[in-house]
Amino acid sequence: MARKIIIDTDPGQDDAVAILLALASPEVEVLGLTAVAGNVPLPLTQLNARKILELAGRGDVPVFAGCDAPLARKLVTAEHVHGKTGLDGITLPEPTLPLQDRHGVDFIIDTLRAEPAGTVTLVPIGPLTNIAEAFRRAPDIINRVQEIVLMGGAYFEVGNITPAAEFNIYVDPEAAAEVFASGLPIVMLPLDVTHEAMTSAAWVEAMRALPNRCGPAVASWTDFFERFDKEKYGSKGAPLHDPCTIAWLIRPDLFQGRRINVEIETAGTFTLGMTVADYWRVTGRPENALFLRHVDRDGLFALIGDRIARLP
Ligand code: RIB
Ligand code: CA
Fold first, then answer.
1. Per residue in 120-134, pLDDT tens?
2. Which residue segment(s) compose the domain that 293 sits in?
3. What is the domain count for the chain?
């Protein structure tokens, strides 16, 4: 039985690969995409979500626009990483796929109320604004969520937008704090594990050589997306942050981590948005997240490559 998921996203090249991986994998059923402001403003993230679905020939998956700003702060975006459009690297045609009228937060609420309790997993791969807003507007849905599998945070790897914070958490720390305090089972894919998910030149060229349109698109996105990490870290390749969430859903055995307490800093002068991970369990605070720290890189890229090859 495929696992029903809602992907909450701010595309973003790595979001795009995550969405394609999900669409190509029978283990998951994508009920819808809810766009959130993050890498680029909401008008672009919802447009990009529709372009990605159209590229994959999946006009059946609905796209909803969610929140256009964090709960309590000004939006911080990441054009320096993802480019002006948020999906730089390849120019995709204007989508014919319509944007749904319903707000993304209402889609999350309605879906969780309509589906049997415990059967829908939320997969946030951008700032957590939509998720927190849904929980605020409809607290009754919180216990109906099966699991939250999110890309965000960092501990040993420290931050990528500030010295202390990872982007998704930093953009809306209040939302992240409310989600991590929800009591729901959270699977966290922080920079600690996603920085192990680095593309190789051979893998990117194998994508480029695929006899479909999605493979070359992944290669072009990676060509663009890797610049930031190469300049900043001197690393080779691009970190496929967001696809790690979908890969975990399909092959959790590829990942290693431990259940610990994670708190979100919402008041720090220098540490705003930091995920304070009690990895060594020194605080006695309740364990609220499965913090994944390592991945079998070869297994991960074999999985992603195999699935992208199945797409149009
Ligand atoms: O820090 C990485 C995260 O921020 C990824 O989700 C990327 O898409 C950006 O949203
Ligand atoms: Ca993202």
1. 999 999 999 999 999
2. 3-308
3. 1
